[in-house]
Amino acid sequence: MLAIMKRDFRSYFNSPIAYVLIGLYMLLLGLFFNSLISYGISDIISEFVANMSGLLLLIIPILTMRSMAEDKKNGTEVLLLTSPVRVTEIVLGKYFASFCVFLVMTAASLIFPLIVIIAGKPDIMLIISSYLGYILIGAVYISLGVFASSLTENQIIAAIISLVSIFLIQNIGYLASFFSGFLSKAFLWISILDRYLDFNKGIIDLTSIVFMISYAAVFVFLTVRVIERKRWSQG
Question: How many angstroms separate the Cα of 2 from the Cα of each of 7, 8, 102, 128, 141?
Answer without folding.
Answer: 8, 10, 17, 28, 21
